[in-house]
């Protein structure tokens, strides 16, 4: 978590850093800070709160046209979010200043050692320990900043992406990474440092992504020098051409990124299957699967590892893989899988799903699977992300940047990619007929149009949201393919409106949640005509007889449930396997409108961050 930005070149650094931090606020937003460097030295400004508050504070405090600087937006790990714990942090001498994304796990031991040597600490952070450790190494070993960073980081245990400046060497910034992302944009005689490319996309399309265990010295007017932290060997960096555009990371007339991203889903899904699914030829082409087809076809089972919304996409995948490809699937929270000594076999295929491609627990689950000889397939959105690089093969979702912290288009594009893989394997294995395969492709091609149709009922959903906005709790029920959608619907509501919500398989209601139902309890029931419709109708009756308020997501033309429900939201008909792609849409909109009506910060809900690089 946390976003870092830096600039070194010929432009005024401050506006680049502030704008960059705003784009990285999805990574954390409880405090922020900036340090600018000029002939007078280091100018520091930091505050509790969002980047907008930092900008207000700094415009009065900072009086410099510096062309070098660093900035940070924080998601607190060590030490509460306050002015003092905000980054950047200075070393005791005041010569070094650092920003850090990650956790130094052995900071307490290091802190005691440094205190014994006379160092004082003003904050509660692990980062302040790191900057002083670097200072101590400089003192003891009489080495330059780059070398001191290498030595200090060899003593540190944990994860980091750092940028550090030494006022005794005013033309350079040193960066390093292990476990947290770090990109360096390369312009004309200028460099941009950031947690991802969004802060510098309007200035340059050339970037280097530092690999784990690498450090780089960035100097004005010089080439960037990358080295391995461990053995000091020089690495030739790979310069990538970025595909991202500025309009993809701006709100484009929408009030919130989340709403924009909900509306982007038809196009995002088209982008996901474009070039892969060729209904006219009756084929699905996916290089990552084609090149390793035998791994999938001989898989004893598939284990999906993921967190949050991506885990819900994994649950949908369980239904679709078992249904269409007849491969057994287990879906694991990456955070549980990594620590519970799981049985992993060489014939297991691990599918790691992650929007950001940076989630620490998912990354650790991948490493564990690889150590045990399993084949790892990554489904990521962010191109070049750590998980995509650590996987043996993979498929990008091509959803474009997702900035709203509550995931929307990442979820539906993940389901799309996973559906394509399941269909492809089903055809190869003969578990679905060629004619069914072709019908599935034709139907999948229609899904974006059907989502567009579902988005047209936004006004109606607004009214439903108004009706339920003051609920204290909410239950979400679904069966089969729509059970994971119920979980995802409940997660969306909790995340952004802070209303307590639970998702359940509809039939499980009678084993507990039914006790909660009274006239105060809204129950969202996904009751599409496919699947176990009759069973769900019975569940709806059970809720009604206990006076629960029913919001039903039904298929166009529905009769039975519509007669009983208090509010009905209709979506177009589709194949059962694709219903999650449609039933999700009204649930996203419902949560969004309730959160807006309650005055919540939809794009940056409290305590959450989009990229969770700590465990
Ligand atoms: C955080 C985000 C969620 C996301 C989860 C997993 O909790 O707020 O939206 O689903 O991390 O992230 P990933 O990038 O691995 O999909």
List the helices and strands and how they pair.
Layout: E1 3-8, H1 13-23, E2 31-38, E3 41-48, H2 51-61, E4 68-74, E5 89-90, E6 96-104, H3 107-116, H4 126-141, H5 145-155, E7 158-166, E8 172-178, E9 183-186, E10 191-194, E11 206-209, E12 214-219, E13 225-228, E14 234-235, E15 239-241, H6 257-263, H7 265-273, E16 277-278, E17 283-284, H8 287-290, H9 293-297, E18 301-306, H10 308-325, E19 329-333, H11 334-337, E20 348-354, H12 360-371, E21 375-380, H13 386-390, E22 393-396, H14 409-429, H15 434-455, H16 458-468, E23 473-478, H17 483-497, E24 500-505, E25 522-527, H18 533-545, E26 549-555, H19 560-564, E27 567-571, H20 579-597
Parallel strand pairs: 18-19, 18-20, 20-21, 21-22, 23-24, 23-25, 25-26, 26-27
Antiparallel strand pairs: 1-4, 1-10, 2-3, 2-4, 5-6, 6-7, 7-8, 8-12, 9-10, 9-11, 11-15, 12-13, 13-14, 16-17
Bound molecules: 6-O-phosphono-alpha-D-glucopyranose.
Tell me what you see in this structure.
With 615 residues, the chain is α/β, with parallel strands linked by helices. It has 3 domains: 3-248, 4-Layer Sandwich (Glutamine Phosphoribosylpyrophosphate, subunit 1, domain 1); 251-455, Rossmann fold; 457-615, Glucose-6-phosphate isomerase like protein, domain 1 (Rossmann fold). The protein is built from 20 helices and 27 strands. The strands form 5 sheets. The chain has an 8-stranded antiparallel β-sheet, covered by helices on one side. α3 (107-116) packs across α4 and α4 (126-141) crosses α5. The N and C termini lie close together (10 Å). Bound molecules: 6-O-phosphono-alpha-D-glucopyranose. 6-O-phosphono-alpha-D-glucopyranose binds next to α10.
């Amino acid at each position: 978590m946390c976003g870092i930005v830096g600039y070194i070149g010929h432009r005024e650094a401050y506006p680049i850093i502030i704008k960059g931090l705003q784009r990285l606020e999805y990574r954390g937003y409880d405090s922020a800070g900036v340090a600018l460097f000029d002939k007078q030295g280091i100018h520091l400004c930091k505050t509790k709160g969002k980047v907008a508050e930092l900008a207000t504070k700094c415009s009065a405090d900072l009086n410099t046209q510096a062309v070098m600087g660093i900035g940070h937006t924080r998601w607190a790990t060590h030490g509460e979010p306050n002015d003092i714990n905000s980054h950047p942090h200075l070393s005791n001498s005041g010569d070094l200043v650092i920003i850090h994304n990650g956790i130094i796990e052995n900071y307490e031991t290091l802190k005691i050692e440094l205190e014994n040597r006379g160092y004082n600490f003003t904050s509660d952070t692990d980062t302040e320990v790191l900057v002083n450790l670097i200072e101590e190494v400089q003192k003891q070993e009489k080495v330059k900043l780059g070398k001191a960073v290498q030595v200090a980081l060899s003593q540190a245990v944990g994860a980091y992406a750092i940028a550090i400046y030494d006022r005794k060497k005013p033309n350079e910034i040193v960066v390093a990474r292990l476990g947290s992302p770090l990109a360096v944009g390369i312009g004309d005689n200028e460099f941009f440092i950031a947690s991802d490319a969004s802060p510098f996309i309007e200035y340059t399309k050339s970037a280097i992504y530092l690999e784990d265990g690498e450090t780089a010295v960035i100097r004005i007017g010089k080439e960037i020098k990358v080295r391995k932290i461990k053995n000091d060997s020089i690495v030739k960096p790979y310069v990538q051409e970025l595909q991202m555009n500025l309009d993809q990371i701006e709100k484009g007339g929408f009030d919130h990124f989340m709403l924009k991203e909900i509306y982007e889903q038809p196009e995002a899904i088209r982008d996901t299957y474009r070039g892969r699914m060729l209904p006219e030829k009756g084929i699905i082409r996916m290089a990552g699967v084609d090149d390793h087809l035998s791994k999938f076809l001989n898989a004893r089972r598939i284990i999906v590892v993921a967190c949050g919304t991506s885990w819900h996409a994994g649950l949908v995948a369980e239904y679709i893989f078992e249904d269409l490809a007849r491969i057994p699937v287990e879906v694991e929270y990456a955070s549980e899988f990594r620590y519970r000594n799981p049985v992993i076999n060489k014939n297991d295929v691990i599918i790691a799903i992650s929007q950001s491609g940076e989630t620490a627990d998912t990354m650790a689950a991948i490493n564990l699977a690889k150590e045990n000889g399993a084949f790892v397939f990554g489904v990521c959105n962010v191109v070049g992300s750590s998980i995509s690089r650590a996987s043996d093969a993979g498929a990008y979702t091509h959803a474009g940047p997702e900035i709203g912290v509550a995931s929307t288009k990442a979820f539906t594009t993940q389901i799309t990619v996973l559906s394509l893989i399941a269909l492809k394997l089903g055809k190869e294995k003969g578990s679905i007929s060629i004619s069914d395969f072709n019908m599935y492709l034709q139907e999948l091609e229609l899904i974006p149009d059907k989502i567009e149709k579902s988005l047209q009922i936004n006004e109606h959903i607004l009214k439903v949201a108004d009706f339920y906005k003051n609920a204290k709790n909410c239950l979400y029920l679904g069966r089969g393919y729509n059970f994971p959608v119920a979980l995802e619907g409940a997660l969306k509501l909790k995340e952004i409106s802070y209303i307590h919500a639970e998702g359940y398989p509809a039939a499980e209601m009678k084993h507990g949640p039914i006790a909660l139902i009274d006239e105060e309890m809204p129950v969202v029931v996904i009751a599409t005509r496919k699947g176990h419709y009759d069973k769900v109708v019975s569940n709806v009756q059970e809720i009604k007889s206990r006076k629960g308020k029913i919001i039903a997501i039904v298929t166009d033309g529905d009769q039975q449930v519509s007669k009983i429900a208090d509010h009905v939201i209709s979506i177009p008909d589709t194949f059962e396997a694709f219903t999650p792609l449609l039933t999700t849409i009204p649930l996203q909109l419902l949560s969004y409108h309730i959160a807006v009506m309650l005055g919540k910060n939809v794009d940056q809900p409290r305590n959450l961050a989009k990229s969770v690089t700590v465990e």
